[in-house]
Amino acid sequence: MRQAFALTSMMGTACFIGCTKAASPDALELFNTFDGNVVPKSSATAFVSAFDTFCVNAPDSIDDVDKALRDVSYVPTSSRNGTRLYIVDDSRPAIAISERSCAVRALSRTGQTDRVKRYMAETFPDAKPLTPAPFGKDVEQVWKVGEPRPGAIVTTRTVELGTTTSYTLIFLRQQGAGAT
């Protein structure tokens, strides 16, 4: 579960752009990124769609996920503790990937929680809800999921700068399953 909080912390850090090599094309593209798009207001559908595409049904190789993200205009902003963070200069959510986890994050919007619940029921009908309290104060929901990609799916809601909240959907793959 620590990985989930590391992802949340990493995605909430404002140094995304400054952490990229200064002379790289990625850094130059990120320099012009609208601040509000670092952690954007994504629609519930865009939020869940990104999670499904890049976390649940993603290629097994991190390099292949990187290519898939770049193919749809995402740019890597930083890498810390084996986790790569990607943003795009529009309203699609920020995405973080590592060998054992993947997360999407956006500002809280209407319909996100219900859309995630519907997605879970449709995609993981046998998911077992767990009590979120033991996992931390920001954790709202936790499900244990089985095949084809066993692990846990977690939602967190974090207060950003005291005035807004962000919503994160995290897939923690079971050891030995998923991206390599």
Structure description:
The protein has 180 residues and is of the alpha+beta class. It is 29% helix and 29% strand. It contains five helices and eight strands; from the N terminus they run ααααββββαββββ. The protein has an eight-stranded antiparallel sheet with strand order 1-2-3-4-8-7-6-5, sandwiched between helices. α3 (44-56) packs parallel to α5. The longest helix is centred in the N-terminal third of the chain and has 13 residues, at 44-56. The protein is globular.
Topology:
Elements: H1 2-12, H2 25-31, H3 44-56, H4 62-71, E1 75-80, E2 83-87, E3 94-97, E4 101-107, H5 112-123, E5 128-130, E6 139-145, E7 151-160, E8 164-173
Antiparallel strand pairs: 1-2, 2-3, 3-4, 4-8, 5-6, 6-7, 7-8
Helix pairs in contact: 3-5
Fill in the keyword field for this structure.
disordered N terminus, eight-stranded antiparallel sheet, single chain, alpha+beta
Q: Brief overview, please?
A:
The chain is α+β, with helices and mostly antiparallel strands and 180 residues long. The protein contains five helices and eight strands.
